[in-house]
Amino acid sequence: MSTNDANVAQATSAADSKTPLLFTPIKLRSVVVRNRIMAAPMCQYVSHDGGPTEWQLVNFGRFAMGGAGIVFGEETAVEAPGRKTHHCAGLYNDAHVTQYRRINDFIRSLGATPAIQLGHCGRRASAHGPLQDRAPLTEADAKVGLIPWQGIAPSPIPASPGGALPREMDHDDIRKNIQLWREAAKRSLDAGYDICEIHGAHGYLIHQFLSPVSNRRTDGYGGSLEGRMRFALEITEAVRAAWPADMPLFFRISSIDGTGGEWGMDDSLALSRELKARGVDVVDCSSGGITGDGKLAPLPRVPGFQAGYAREIKEEVGVATAAVGMITEPSHAEALLRDGHADIIAMARELMDNPNWPLQAARALGVKEPLDLVHAREAQRLRLREQHRKDYPPGMAIEIPFGPNDVVPYSWEDLSPGKRARH
Ligand SMILES: Cc1cc2nc3c(=O)[nH]c(=O)nc-3n(C[C@H](O)[C@H](O)[C@H](O)COP(=O)(O)O)c2cc1C
Hints:
Blueprint: E1 8-10, E2 26-28, E3 31-33, E4 37-39, H1 54-65, E5 70-77, E6 89-90, H2 94-109, E7 113-119, H3 139-142, E8 152-153, E9 167-168, H4 171-190, E10 195-200, H5 205-210, H6 225-242, E11 249-254, H7 265-277, E12 282-286, H8 307-317, E13 320-324, H9 330-338, E14 344-347, H10 349-353, H11 357-364, H12 376-391, E15 398-403, E16 406-410
Parallel strand pairs: 4-5, 4-14, 5-6, 5-7, 7-10, 8-9, 10-11, 11-12, 12-13, 13-14
Antiparallel strand pairs: 1-2, 2-3, 15-16
Flavin mononucleotide (FMN) is lined by residues 40-43, 74-75, 117, 199, 201-202, 252, 286, 324-326, 347-350.
């Protein structure tokens, strides 16, 4: 059993003791995930009116083809104004449901578990994408159809100095916002997702409520830690109630605001305890994103730089965690699981670089049948290639035919194709 409770367990029957932990299935409520590798959420900025395009099918599909256990898409907004850009993803109408279902059916057909990250960007709304400057949209953008809109936030403080001023949410806004999360969770189920994650990190709306950097409210949604956590916990309760009881709920936190921030690990421990009590199964431990006055220094981006947060939450709270951040080596991923840092290893850019990382990690860690991870269509051909390698070991004297009575000795060891004696 993992540290959580009966909701998270090793699916031990499917694995023998020699199976690396990374490739031991994990049971999350009623959902059995084939391994502990999670393609972390990655915003794509290519959606049309919030809906996915061929890009998402191919991009997220390739992580499933490569053998990942959980395949997230991207932060998916619960309402159109909750997107950062006009091209961010959303799940706020029924047309979206059909569009995502196609992708999720494909991901599931490849043995992976499709997961959605629901989000709302709050004060970080109405911006340019990362290929431009992420700066707020202006009247110049409006002339080309990219109409700016005003973001919402716990307090009227721009995301960064000189940024657009968000509108402070009143109690009616808060109530309506929670309702949007509830509806999006229901749509997520209809769209075929098996895991739902609440995005409470990276300086977006929920994190804006959590951190005193962005929350200066004096009502029941601000002030004390309890007040600042209230919005996050009410959303969690709403999503948990709308999301089936036998399906897993994740919550992504910024474990700390960043160097010099105001939200720290003691706060994250308190939050995680409350999340666990409300039926969150996995706390996905990221960090940063509250830009504040722009003085918050980023963490040193070294391998596993956030894994210590996952470990502390797992140990202190007894909830399952996901570790993320610069994890690229199979032996490192395995060690993080074995040493009890986390139950799941999340990866973003390494999978972008190498979508077949799970297959290669399975080989590197000595999994018995690594090719079981990929579709039978590919496995068959790759097994045949392995057989070729066994049939023709290095150093074997072979001849390549050039014609009916014409053979040429060939040494593939030094990669020198023999030359035919021409008459
Ligand atoms: C292109 C890109 C988009 C991202 N979008 C999201 C997102 O939508 N939601 C989120 O929580 N994190 C997002 N992240 C952060 C990743 O999920 C991950 O936490 C981060 O990249 C660190 O992991 P890595 O070192 O394996 O890339 C994004 C990262 C990248 C590279």
